[in-house]
Design a protein that fits this description.
17 helices, 4-stranded antiparallel β-sheet
């Protein structure tokens, strides 16, 4: 017996731990929203390209567009132009769009439009980057100044992160004579980044420029320059003005390197302006779009991967264990008497279509009339199988009659009575009649009321939209329910109704 108890405890623990682990993985690693009302940002980015085309030469415009390789995924990308050819190429980790035309004249306007969202994936692909670079060639006073800056940087750093951060802080100290010499009177962010790159190259620490767009709606902006370095496992991003490490979450990497955002052949006065706006979309729907537009498997092995019609069926099926759990608690802990465990759950499922109030009325009418017929058939001394056949036929006729009269009276809700399981109603009538004969009318009425109450409560709980979403999205939670049901299987204590029944004994003892 002790080994059986240990076996049961281990089984319960395994089921609970497995259910919690899978659910936690879905929530915290995959980022699946816990509630159906959860929304995520959907960003719309427009880049407007304006330039003046030369009438004599062919036109070729090249512009960097986001690589979207890690944190964001494109849901829609379009290149809007008139009589221009469009091609997109990937070079050195960047993506570049090329618009070309044989002839163009005067003011020209092109558009690049991108709809994106955060990537739904807890598992990132392995990142690669350089861990060594050759020194940039520099001579004379600039070389002496760069080496003089490098000495204290080495003393005050311990790894790549602190080395790069310290270098940026030193270069931003405009009172340092070495910095003044290297900047040459140009304290712009781009020139500071160039000096940081020069100093770090002497120490063979690779660093590269990255240009980002801030995801802020309704604010005009231009790409913002950042620096990044690879530490062997991940990219570290740095603000070239402050040395602060870490790219803010509202930054979208647009391109890397020293090249300009746009280059124009056969034109002049090129200008790019950005406009952004965001909207919110249901998080699960957005996750589905992410799966459709990428090779991600965010929802591939979930119930959302099933056909839509099948999904609707499973939304009902996964709630059946919840209903069974309600009946289990009502029977084993409270002591409510019902016609078995599954009969109330099946009646609760029928209430989904009839609604609760109308369903109780229909169930009461059909059961009462069926009991009357069962009582009459008992006087004919029929065997069980013929008797059940007659009751089943009567239930069908009664359901058809109620549906017909309801339709004539304009009560369309009555048509849904046909969804009541006829066999369940028949067996309910038969079992209630047997209970009536064996234990009296009072007990049969008590069981019938208990069954209706349990079915009603199960229906209310099984119909909670938040609970339906949670169980359907995180079906591993059912493993936890199984563990609880196994634990309830060993409960031998008093039920609440029994405490009331035996209250008189307590008074007698005292």
């Amino acid at each position: 017996m002790r080994s059986i108890n240990l076996h049961l405890k281990i089984l319960i623990a395994l089921l609970v731990v497995l259910g919690i682990s899978v659910t936690a993985y879905q929530i915290f690693v995959l980022g699946i929203p816990v509630t159906e009302d959860a929304t995520d940002d959907l960003w719309n980015i427009d880049a407007k390209v304006e330039f003046v085309a030369s009438a004599k030469d062919p036109v070729k415009i090249q512009m960097f567009v986001p690589p979207l390789s890690r944190d964001y995924v494109s849901l829609n990308e379009s290149f809007i132009s008139n009589n221009y050819g469009v091609a997109v190429n990937r070079v050195d980790g960047n993506r570049k769009v090329t618009w070309s035309a044989r002839r163009a004249k005067g003011n020209q306007t092109l558009y690049y439009r991108l709809v994106l969202t955060k990537r739904y994936s807890g598992e990132k692909s392995k990142i690669k980057g350089p861990t060594f670079r050759d020194s940039i060639a520099v001579e004379g006073a600039e070389k002496v100044a760069a080496e003089a800056l490098l000495a204290p940087i080495r003393q005050h750093s311990a790894d790549v992160e602190t080395f790069v951060g310290e270098a940026i802080k030193r270069v931003n100290n405009l009172n340092d004579d070495n910095v003044k010499l290297l900047l040459g009177g140009d304290p712009s962010t781009a020139n500071k980044a160039r000096i940081v790159e020069l100093v770090l190259s002497i120490a063979h620490v690779p660093v590269e420029k990255v240009h980002t767009i801030r995801l802020v709606a309704d604010q005009p902006q231009m790409p913002e320059l950042w620096l990044r370095s690879f530490n062997g496992t991940d990219w570290l991003y740095f603000n070239p003005e402050t040395g602060e490490q870490g790219l803010p979450t509202d930054r979208l990497l647009w391109w890397t390197g020293d090249e300009n955002l746009i280059t124009v052949d056969g034109g002049k006065k090129a200008n790019v302006t950005f406009s952004l706006n965001n909207s919110e979309m249901n998080a699960i729907r957005l996750a589905k779009l992410t799966d459709e537009n990428t090779d991600a498997n965010f929802l591939e092995y979930s119930l959302y991967g099933l056909p839509l019609q099948t999904q609707q069926t499973f939304m009902i099926m996964v709630m059946i264990p919840i209903g069974v759990l309600v009946i289990l608690i009502l029977r084993n802990l409270i002591g409510l008497q019902t016609l078995g465990t599954f009969t109330p759950v099946l009646i609760a499922l029928a209430f989904r279509e009839t609604q609760l109030g109308f369903g109780i009325v229909l169930f009461t009418i059909i059961t009462a009339l069926g009991l009357s017929l069962r009582s009459y058939l008992e006087h004919l001394k029929l065997q069980m199988l013929p008797r059940l056949s007659v009751v089943l036929t009567f239930v069908v006729v009664l359901i058809a009659a109620i549906s017909l009269f309801s339709h004539k009276l304009g009560l369309e809700r009555g048509l849904s009575v046909a969804l009541f399981p006829m066999v369940i109603l028949t067996m309910t009538i038969e079992r209630l009649s047997i209970t009536w004969e064996e234990r009296g009318a009072g007990h049969a009425l008590k069981v019938a009321i208990g069954t209706l109450f349990a079915a009603s409560l199960a229906h209310l709980i099984m119909s909670v939209p938040e609970l339906v979403y949670f169980v359907f999205t995180f079906p591993a939670i059912l493993l936890i329910l199984v563990g609880f049901m196994l634990a309830m299987g060993r409960y031998r204590g008093y039920r609440l109704t029994e405490l009331v029944r035996f209250k008189a004994f307590l008074k007698a003892d005292s």
